Amino acid sequence: QVQLVESGGGSVQAGDSLRLSCVASGGAFSAYSMGWFRQAPGKEREFVAGIMWIGGSTTYADSVKGRFTISRDNAKNTVNLHMNSLKPEDTAVYYCAARWQYSSAYNYWGQGTQVTVSS
Prior knowledge:
Layout: E1 3-7, E2 10-13, E3 18-25, E4 32-39, E5 46-51, E6 58-60, E7 68-73, E8 78-83, E9 92-100, E10 108-109, E11 113-118
Parallel strand pairs: 2-11
Antiparallel strand pairs: 1-3, 3-8, 4-5, 4-9, 5-6, 7-8, 9-10, 9-11
C-alpha cells in the first residue's frame, strides 16, 4: 500500500512559480509511474503530467506544456511538479497519484494541495 503526501501549494499571482512535492511511502517507489492531476471547482479531475517508472519519460497536458515540469527523485521517494508562468486557470486542487509500472490505472492518491492563482 502506497501512501502519498503532497505539499507546496499556496496562493500566488499570475506569472509566478510554485513547486509541488509529493513524498511516497509504503512501497517500492522506483517501480511506480507517477502523475499529477488537478480538479478545479465545478470541473472534473484532469491529468496534468506523468513520469514513467523506468526511463523517466514524461507526458503533459497541452494546457501546461512548456510551463510545467515533472521530475522524480527515487532516492528521496519524491515526485515534483515545477509550475512556471502560472495562470488563473491553473487554480485547482492538485493531486499526486501512483500506478504500478505500466498499469493503466492510478491506484494510489494523495489528499491534494490547493493552488490559487490570482490575476
